[in-house]
Amino acid sequence: MSELVRITDVSPRDGLQNEAEIVATHAKVALVRQLCLAHVDEIEVSSFVSPKWVPQLADAASVFAACAAFKPTDVEFSALVPNAKGLESAFRVNHDAGSRVIDKVSVFTAASETFSKRNTNASIAETLARFEPVLSSAKHSGLRVRAYLSCVIACPFEGPIDPAQVARVSTQLLDLGVDELDLGDTIGAGTPQSTRAMIEAVVGSVGSRLDLASKGSGVPLVLHFHDTFGRAAECVVEALGLGVRQFDGAAGGLGGCPYASTPDRRAPGNIATDTLVRTIESTGYRTRVRGTDLARASAMASTIVGRPVSQERGPP
Ligand code: HMG
Ligand code: MG
Asked: Pseudo-torsion of CA 106, 92, 71, 308, nearest 10°?
């Protein structure tokens, strides 16, 4: 039997955080429900960040509370949290629901100092210091912690990022005890070559601590591609060849970090989850995803944002 690849759909969070119009809570909930039917492994439902920084997701607690009613036992829900205050909000959701609605929280930092400052008003070192109390409280309460590392290929402000820097911050995140390492090509600058160089640098530093090629032990390595130039699918194939078995996508290719936008360019969307799934399956791996329901989620994403979303690109 071919190896299983795990899929997280981040469209309700990464997708909707970058929309100019604030999407209604009920529409976000409907998208999450459809993604549950599509049987992705995990849904990044929302963020507990400052509503002044990301007003689009200020209703995170209401979205989670509504989604508690239909959360399947085999689909995980996660939330982005930048600090202890965000974690407290996540705890409150689970407490108020009387059940585990949020299974995992995701902290985020960057391989670029400039991006870290712009996105979180903190240096890389300051973000790592913020994570320490988040990690200890989350673990104490049985929540797992994913750590995102943004700008692993290039930064919208600093340009290309040295793979050795990605390896350095990845090592620091593993030293803190995160449960998952998620490497983000925030602006979709990656090529198969630069993706390989970056992954090889990380594996060269911390490979023995990572769960690669379904080894079954170690910290899972996740890849998070934005798809500016239509090369994300090729980068996924490259990463699969290097043993990566977890990826993020967004229904309809929505997405983008508002703080990765520059005056002349809006931050690009994530790889569309249907492109991601087709790429993985045509490369000889399996996913749990149900294609028809995923296509409905993509159509729903398009209706929600009021414009056509990325069309299926197909495998490279
Ligand atoms: P700050 O202004 O330095 O924070 O922002 P502060 O601690 O000085 O607090 C300022 C105000 O924010 C206070 O409120 C706090 O209570 C409040 P006030 O007293 O002024 O009324 N505050 C909060 N409110 C709600 N929830 C919280 C929270 N924390 C403080 N958790 C901060 C620092 C980190 C909060 C801010 O920079 C922030 O929220 N940044 C989030 C930016 C963001 O969400 N970016 C997008 C996600 S990252 C991404 O998309 C990349 C990714 O997809 C991977 C990839 O593609 O590479 C993950
Ligand atoms: Mg992203």
From this structure: -60
Close Cβ partners of 171 (under 8 Å, ≥ 6 residues apart): 205, 206
Question: In this structure, what DSSP letter does residue 152 have?
Answer: S
Does 315 score more than 60 pLDDT? no
For ligand 1, which residues put their CB under 6 angstroms from it?
14, 17, 47-50, 52-54, 80, 82-83, 85-86, 108, 119-121, 148, 150, 184, 186, 224, 226, 257, 259
Q: What is the pTM of this model?
A: 0.96
d(CA 85, CA 67): 22
- End-to-end, the C-alpha distance of the chain in Å comes to 23
Q: For ligand 1, atom 40, which residue shows the shortest CA distance?
A: 120
Q: Ligand 1 centroid to 77 CA: how many Å?
A: 20
Q: CA-based Rg of the chain, rounded to a whole angstrom?
A: 18
Note the pLDDT tens digit of each residue in 289-303.
999 999 999 999 999
Task: Give residue 121 CA to ligand 1 midpoint distance, Å.
Answer: 8
Q: Bridge partners of 286?
A: 4
Closest CA to ligand 1's atom 49: 257
Query: Considering the domain 6-305 in this protein, what is its CATH number?
Result: 3.20.20.70
Pocket test for ligand 1, best of 49, 157, 195 (most atoms within 8 A of CB): 49
The pLDDT tens digits of the residues spanning 270-285 come to 999 999 999 999 999 9
**Looking up tokens 């205050």, which residue turns up?**
85
The domain locations on the chain are 6-305
Checking if the pLDDT of 1 tops 90, the result is: no
Q: Is 151 a catalytic residue?
A: no
- pLDDT given for residue 313 in this prediction: 43
